[in-house]
Specification:
Elements: E1 6-11, E2 21-29, E3 43-50, E4 61-69, E5 83-84, H1 99-114
Antiparallel strand pairs: 1-3, 2-4, 2-5, 3-4
Length: 115
Amino acid sequence: MNFKHEKEIEWLDDRSKYPYLREVQLPISGRTRMPHSSIVAGKLVAYAKLEPTAPAHSPGMFVRRLFYVTPRDPYERGGPYEAVDPYSVQPGIPALRGEVIISEWVAWQRAARVL
């Protein structure tokens, strides 16, 4: 996907609560309004808002990134394929993916609880 038309990421919840977010790209009506929360299989945490010049995918529909968690998140080890680092979510650039990021976060959380 081309992210160059993203203007901002709208956060609905504090990203520090999550070791990872699931990212999906879906056609949604409108460039900036909040998508219906039922569009994802869980809790919508953030979504991309597009510039006014962003081209439509089809009439009135624009491909936008959504970031969410499901009731079974977080996984004890690793994460799902679509997992991204919440702190790497920025408008216009791809978010970082990978089990290494998630494993490091889980280790950091465990260490923080012990101290």
